[in-house]
Amino acid sequence: MEQPYDYDRNGVSALLYAIIEQHSNSQSRDWLMQRSNVLQETKSVQQFNLTFSAIPRFTGKDLLTLPTGIISNLQHAAHGFFVQHYTLDRLTRTWWLLQWPSDNRDAYVQTVEGLFNAAEMNELVALYGALPLLPWPQEWKLRTAEGIRSNIGTVLEAIMLDNPYPARYLDEPAWNQLVMKALFTEKPVHRIIGLDERANARLAATLVDYAHERWAAGRTVNPMLWRLVAGFINEATMPDIQRIWQSAENIEKDAAALACYYSPYPPAKALLKQSPRAEQDIIKGALSWSRVAEKLGGN
């Protein structure tokens, strides 16, 4: 029988509350405990929703700076859940979502969908960021796909960046849409979890077409795009790799070298052999997709 959580929900809830406890004052902690007690007694959807909305007024919105160990503990405990760049109210809202009873699948989903439907921007950021922790994970696939169509930058970032949920659960079309939207909106693509593991031939073909359109319009192409094409280079796309290999921009040459290195296509391997230094830099780690992202100003 499917279980609501595929991780230690109580353990993660305790880790989150320990962070809240350390970074909040006694007044906000007392308020949270009072709201938690009311929720346990009443199981009231209205009280759950009101508390979710009211959290920033009691916790504040300070940006959290957390030790590496705490971040790693949460990542290890919950499939890569990542709390860097969180504010206290966002983290508290994440914790609060775990307090609603989840045994009844339909009731839990209906309650959280109600939050999504009524949410303002910061509430949406908290909800989408909490996707890796929400029970019944298969239930949030359509909601995530809908979120990818948003035009709100912070909402898109909550879904796309440092979030393990999309790579684990989205179907290929929705995943491809996420990557394309990240490129369209100039998000730091390297922070998409599962980027290499979820690379696929359809996405690669779409990205090559996108590159051609930008070139035809006299526009530049994000060098990180070729990371997703590398595994699918073939006779049709090899001229594109040769084009960036011969670019006057060093960052494009770096992308071409990396794409060739990670490609199984023999002509791409042969092209890389023309630059033994680039190949050695890749082997030694001096040239990597992370370094390309750094040069692009990624954070």
Describe the protein's architecture and organization.
The chain folds into two domains: 139 residues, no CATH class; 101 residues, no CATH class. Helices cover 63% and strands 0% of the residues. It contains 18 helices and no strands. It starts with 8 loop residues before the first helix and ends with a helix. The model has no long low-confidence stretch (mean pLDDT 96).
Secondary-structure map:
Blueprint: H1 9-23, H2 26-42, H3 45-59, H4 68-77, H5 88-97, H6 105-118, H7 121-129, H8 141-148, H9 153-160, H10 165-169, H11 172-184, H12 201-216, H13 225-229, H14 238-245, H15 250-262, H16 266-272, H17 276-284, H18 289-295
Summary, kept brief:
With 299 residues, this protein is mostly helical. 63% of the residues lie in helices and 0% in strands. The protein folds into two domains: 1-139, no CATH class; 199-299, no CATH class.
State the main characteristics:
299 residues, 0% strand, mainly alpha
